[in-house]
């Protein structure tokens, strides 16, 4: 998979943090975790299928599902959420201290000695208490249950899971903090295999009790899977002097009270299940089972989003432990976007195809068509809350990482007292829970299970909004406008995909075909709309996949040619742009950072190769003109409004040189290239003050032989004064990029080779002498470009060149740009941004066609 590596910049430098992971670390960790988790989820789905086949949806399954509340509560509390929130930051801080204090006692072992014995004692007591109090627990959870005796028996069996779940969560957190993801991801494979085995063997003899026995055995296997890797991690930890292992000052101090807010949040979050079971117990038999099956299917859309949090959480925790708030913020913003994109495409699929999916998975044996319709309806209502579930999973992890369960021994203990802000997630969850209860009580009498699902979605969405505010209060300064804009684009794409997918799902009566056709339609429409709307989480993986895995040559895998090596055979020149070239390649730091003067002995860059083109706006003149036959002039008022729109939407205008450098470094973010052709004098008078006001930069492409004169090439247009020699020099000294627009503003296609060399080489030489610095950018006069022109520009030593349209030559020496005129307001600029992205995709698709790739 392709991993987004863009990191936004901030004003203040970050303190030195832990070493950054390898570029492919997240992709590999995500791949391993995704594979094993998908396997575990598949076994879990098979488990639910067997439950539905053997027992259907009746009083017996309702009794088991009440008992299932114990492991269902213990898993997030002890494995997925609370334990991870506590121990991943704790082990991350211990690892940071190990790096800082190589000669002291090992903080990791010290942490284990201080926490594990107490944890085991607490887990044993809690497990015993649950087993003894099973009757009261069942009476509290489901007072209207028809057969409470069966529920009590199953609850006492599932109470065993508390101890192994806690051990598995503790060991898994330690391994993830060490960036070991394989064993923690495998625990649900072992868990569900045990349940499947007991169900297959004992369902006829023990009935629904066999499911409870399988849960107990599976929990023991979960802990067993992790013991070996955990012990090996402790054994291979860095050897220390014998006397230093127990001597010296303590590196870490436990903060027991920090556990309370984390446990309170997890329990409050899980209380939504308690509410469903409580209110659902008074509804017709089978309602709880319908809610359970709907929740299981809906949560499949959450799997990939949770995987992102699982893999990146140790990175966020390590960054926060080292005091690097910038890295933590950037990582959280990426996680929010990526998790939302994944869960929204799953949500759109469920909205469109829920009846077909439920019929395909469950409608057999004791599970009837009535059960299918009821479960599918609940799934669609549940799905409204899935994006909020993903956001909560992303945001609550860094929130609790700011205040881990341990602190450094040399830190002031008064600064680590539990405050009201530590309880903010609990309060946010409580408000959401109140919304859930209110909506559930109001809607259940009229809509039954659908009312409960609606309350769940409303409550969790309320909590997500409050937690977004809480991260800001916690000191993780998310750029909220940027986050909301990205979420809006993804949501719009999901709505469109769900609508089209719903129509596709109805084309066939076969559940299998309907699921396949509807799912593929949703995926394709979501990808197309997400790209058109400018959602980077959709567009970047799509273009990256086209560049990496499409047919044809892959420029990144080709060895670089040196100056001494003979040049490869060049294709025949064409006066018109070729239609089969790949889009531009901007991934090479070495190429982007190569000084423009270093033309001797350097590797020649390929023309028309790579991945995608940055968004560059093309201006000409900024002035008040009554006559503008070529539509090249933007009024100062309109220009100021356009720059204000860029600033308001979180974008920053920069020179083309700065934009390409930022893309090479992965820091482009919301940067937009600003270019001004022809070198009109009004650039200095009207454009520069507005750009300076917003902190923007830009590139001015000037014509060296015509500086100080007028635009004589525009036969029908008004005469405009061009920048003078002194103005160009002053602009360059002030930091504005100066590029070449040809020596005399002549169209390059069709010129003899000698004239091409004059227009490119001589214009660059003249400008470098004028400004006393390098000139790295070229802009084709009239936007006219052919293959020979791109070669001439490259051979003249330029670092890049700007054209206008996307074409077969689109690449580093033919960067496409978006024309901006006086009629372009916010809506038209958004449309041009989307059009640019769509053309990027189309150019990439054309470049991948077999038979064209070699051009």
Q: What labels describe this entry?
A:
disordered N terminus; single chain; 61% helix; mainly alpha; disordered C terminus; six-stranded parallel β-sheet; two-stranded antiparallel ribbon; 855 residues
The count of strands amounts to 12
Largest sheet: 6 strands, parallel
**Poorly predicted sequence stretches spanning 5 or more consecutive residues:** 1-24, 238-250, 547-606, 851-855
Round the Cα radius of gyration to an integer and report it: 31 Å
Count of DSSP H/I helices: 29
Strand content range: under 5%
Determine the structural class based on helices, strands and strand pairing.
mainly alpha
Average pLDDT across residues? 79
Terminal-residue CA separation:
28 Å
Gross geometry: elongated
Helix amount: 55-70%
Protein name: NodB homology domain-containing protein
Region (Disordered): 1-21, 549-583
Transmembrane segments: 25-46, 118-138, 150-173, 185-206, 212-231, 251-268, 300-321, 341-362, 382-400, 421-443, 449-468, 513-536
Organism: Kitasatospora sp. CMC57
């Amino acid at each position: 998979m392709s991993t987004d590596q863009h990191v936004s910049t901030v004003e203040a430098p970050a303190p030195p943090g832990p070493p950054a992971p390898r570029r492919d670390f997240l992709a590999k960790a995500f791949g391993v975790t995704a594979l094993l988790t998908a396997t575990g989820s598949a076994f879990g789905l098979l488990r639910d299928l067997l439950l539905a086949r053997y027992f259907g949806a009746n009083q017996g399954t309702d009794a088991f599902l009440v008992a299932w509340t114990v492991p269902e509560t213990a898993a997030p509390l002890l494995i997925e959420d609370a334990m991870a929130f506590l121990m991943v930051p704790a082990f991350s801080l211990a690892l940071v201290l190990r790096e800082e204090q190589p000669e002291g006692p090992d903080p990791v072992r010290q942490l284990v000695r201080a926490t594990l014995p107490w944890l085991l004692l607490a887990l044993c007591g809690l497990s015993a208490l649950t087993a003894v109090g099973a009757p009261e627990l069942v009476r509290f959870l489901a007072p209207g249950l028809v057969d409470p005796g069966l529920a009590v028996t199953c609850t006492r069996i599932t109470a065993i899971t508390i101890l192994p779940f806690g051990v598995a969560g503790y060991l898994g957190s330690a391994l993830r903090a060490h960036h070991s993801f394989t064993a923690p991801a495998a625990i649900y494979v072992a868990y569900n295999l045990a349940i499947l085995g007991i169900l297959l063997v004992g369902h006829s003899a023990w009935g629904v009790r066999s499911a409870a026995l399988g849960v107990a055995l599976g929990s023991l296997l979960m802990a067993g899977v992790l013991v070996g890797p955990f012990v090996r991690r402790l054994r291979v930890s860095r050897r220390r002097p014998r006397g230093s292992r127990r001597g010296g000052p303590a590196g870490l101090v436990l903060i027991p009270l920090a556990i309370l807010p984390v446990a309170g949040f997890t329990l409050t979050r899980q209380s939504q299940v308690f509410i469903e079971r409580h209110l659902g117990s008074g509804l017709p038999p089978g309602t709880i089972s319908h809610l359970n099956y709907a929740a299981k299917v809906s949560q499949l859309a959450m799997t990939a989003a949770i995987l992102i949090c699982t893999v990146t959480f140790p990175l966020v925790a390590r960054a926060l432990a080292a005091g690097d708030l910038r890295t933590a913020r950037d990582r959280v913003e990426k996680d929010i976007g990526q998790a939302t994109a994944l869960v929204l495409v799953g949500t759109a699929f469920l909205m469109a195809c829920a009846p077909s999916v439920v019929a395909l998975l469950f409608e057999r044996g004791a599970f009837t068509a009535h059960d299918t319709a009821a479960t599918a309806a609940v799934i669609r209502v549940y799905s409204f809350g899935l994006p909020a579930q993903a956001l909560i999973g992303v945001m609550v992890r860094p929130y609790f990482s700011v205040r881990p369960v341990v602190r450094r021994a040399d830190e002031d203990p008064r600064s680590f007292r539990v405050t009201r802000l530590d309880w903010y997630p609990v309060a946010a969850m409580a408000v959401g829970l109140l919304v859930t209860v209110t909506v559930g009580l109001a809607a259940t009498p009229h809509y039954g299970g659908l009312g409960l699902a609606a309350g769940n979605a409303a409550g969790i969405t309320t909590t997500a909004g409050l937690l977004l505010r809480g991260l800001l209060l916690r000191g993780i300064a998310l750029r909220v406008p940027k986050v909301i804009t990205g979420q809006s684009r993804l949501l719009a794409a999901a709505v469109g995909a769900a609508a089209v997918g719903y129509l596709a799902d109805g084309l066939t009566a076969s559940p299998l075909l309907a699921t396949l056709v509807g799912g593929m339609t949703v995926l394709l429409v979501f990808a197309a709309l997400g790209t058109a709307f400018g959602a980077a989480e959709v567009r970047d993986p799509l273009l990256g996949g086209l560049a990496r895995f499409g047919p044809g040559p892959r420029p990144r895998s080709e060895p670089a040619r040196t100056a001494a090596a003979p040049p490869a055979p060049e294709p025949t020149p064409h006066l018109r742009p070729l239609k089969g070239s790949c889009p531009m390649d901007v991934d090479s730091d070495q190429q982007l950072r190569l000084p423009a003067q270093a033309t001797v002995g350097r590797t020649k860059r390929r023309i028309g190769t790579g991945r995608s083109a940055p968004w560059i706006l093309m201006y000409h003149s900024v002035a008040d003109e009554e006559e503008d036959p070529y539509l090249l002039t933007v009024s100062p008022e309109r220009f100021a409004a356009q720059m204000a729109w860029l600033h308001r939407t979180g974008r920053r205008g920069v020179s083309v040189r700065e934009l390409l450098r930022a893309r090479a470094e992965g820091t482009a973010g919301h940067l937009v290239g600003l270019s001004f052709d022809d070198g009109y004098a009004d650039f200095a008078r009207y454009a520069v003050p507005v750009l300076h006001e917003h902190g923007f930069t830009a590139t001015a492409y000037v014509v060296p032989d015509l500086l100080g004169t007028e635009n004589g090439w525009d036969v029908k247009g008004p005469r405009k004064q061009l920048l003078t020699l002194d103005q160009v020099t002053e602009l360059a000294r002030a930091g504005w990029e100066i590029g070449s627009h040809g020596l005399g503003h002549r169209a390059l296609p069709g010129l003899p080779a000698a004239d091409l060399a004059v227009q490119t080489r001589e214009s660059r030489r003249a400008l470098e002498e004028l400004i006393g610095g390098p000139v790295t950018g070229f802009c084709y006069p009239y936007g006219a470009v052919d293959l020979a022109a791109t070669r001439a520009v490259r051979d003249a030593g330029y670092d890049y060149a700007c054209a206008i349209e996307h074409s077969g030559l689109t690449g580093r020496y033919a960067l496409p740009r978006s024309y901006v005129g006086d009629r372009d307001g916010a809506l038209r600029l958004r449309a041009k941004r989307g059009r640019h992205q769509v053309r990027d995709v189309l150019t990439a698709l054309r470049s991948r066609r077999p038979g064209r790739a070699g051009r």
